[in-house]
Amino acid sequence: MNSPCFISFDGPKATGKTTVLEAVGDALRADGRFPVVELCEKDLDPDRAATLHLIKQLTANPTEELEYLVCEKLAAGRAWITDHVLSQVDATSVVLIDRWYPSDAAFRRILPFTEIMAMNLSRGVRIPDLHVGVVTTPEVSWARAMARPRGLSSVVIQSLEEHAACSAAFNRAIVANDWFSCRNESSVEHAALLVQEAIDGLPRRNALNQ
Question: Which key words tag this protein in UniProt (predicted)?
Answer without folding.
Answer: Kinase, Transferase
